[in-house]
Each structure stands twice: as structure tokens, then as C-alpha cells.
Amino acid sequence: MQGFQNLILLTTSCILTHVLGDIRNDGDACLSKVRWRELWKGIDKLGSGNYSSDCIFTDRGHLCEPAKMIKTIVSDNAAVVQVLHKIAKLFKREENPLPNAREFLIDIHQEYDNLKTCLQPTINLSSHRARVTECFQYLYTFLNDHQNTPCAWQTPIIDSMVMLQELEQQAGYRPQPSVNEIS
Predict the structure, then answer these.
(1) Cα 117 → chain centroid
(2) 20 to 30 A Cα–Cα from 75, which one of 3, 44, 115, 120?
(3) Residue 154, C-beta contacts closer than 8 angstroms, at least 6 positions apart
(4) How many Å apart are CA 165 and CA 29, to the nearest integer?
(5) pLDDT digits (tens, 9 = 90+) for 77-102
(6) Where are the chain's structural domains?
(7) CATH 2.10.109.10 corresponds to the domain 2-173
(8) Do 91 and 104 meet the contact criterion of CB atoms below 8 Å apart?
(9) What does the alpha-carbon distance between residue 58 and residue 42 come to, in Å, rounded to a whole number?
(10) Alpha carbon of 174 to those of 7, 37, 153: distances in Å?
(11) Where are the alpha helices (DSSP H) in 34-100?
(12) CB 77 within 8 A of CB 120
């Protein structure tokens, strides 16, 4: 009887591993199709690439660490989709002082729609989605506390770029070594 129970347990484990592995591989394929680099470069253009040291807020208060947050939630496809949605929502705000956000918003909505239809739910932990929501809520509070000034917007621009760059790395992008790194 014990041997039969072990066989059932082993068979169930193998089936779950196979099914979950297939879903994750589909997720990896979907993540690798997203134009992460274009998205984070689009955000960089919003800041015009001009980041003033006068605008660096050394006290980040309760702001989340974007790279750590992404590493925590990347196995949850629903949370990854939510990150794109939250970034788009952040830059769509009326208080956004950035005049050239329209092109970026079109691009991120297109990638969001593609990712949403491509990805199958995996772990789907509400704690992951809560962590994403909390991270963006801190960014909203930060902007409100600093009166949505262009200077304050540097923080969500940089944090969003870091999130997208981390997602790009998690999707398997490996930068080509530069000439200086080879020699």
C-alpha cells in the first residue's frame, strides 16, 4: 500500500512539474517578445535624458526598490502584466508635466495588450499584485508630496526604467559586449 501511495505521489508531482513547466516556458516566450528596451528608452526620452543632480531626492522614504520588486514578482505573470498597466497609468496622469508622453503611452499600451493576451496565469499570488500596487502607490504619494514638479517626476521615470530593464533581463535579454569589454 505504501509503495502505491508513493507511486501516485510521484506521478502527480511529475504531471504538475510538466504542466507548470510548460506554462512558465510559454510565459518566457511571451516575455521575450516584449520590446522592453524600446519601452525603457521611451521613458528615458520622457525625461529627455537630462537628469539633474539637484532633483535627486536622497530620502526615498517608503518608495520601493524597483529591481527587488520585479525579482520578487517575475514568476507571477498577472503581476508582470500589472506592472505595465501601472506604469502606463502613472504616465497617463493629468498632473504629468511631461509633454511627450503620448508616443510612449501608445507603445506601452500595445505591449500591455500583447502581453495580457499571450501570458497564461501562473502562480497568480495576490501578495505579488499587492506588492506592485503598493510600490506604485508610494510613487503617487511621492509625486503628490512634491507637488508633481518636473523635478519630482525624475524619480518615477528612473524607477519605471529600472523596472522595465529588470523585466528585460528576466526575459532573457543579454546585452552584447562592447568593444571595450572584449579587449
Answers:
(1) 17
(2) 44
(3) 47, 51, 52, 55, 56
(4) 17
(5) 888 889 999 999 999 988 888 877 88
(6) 2-173
(7) no
(8) yes
(9) 25
(10) 41, 11, 29
(11) 36-46, 66-73, 77-91
(12) yes
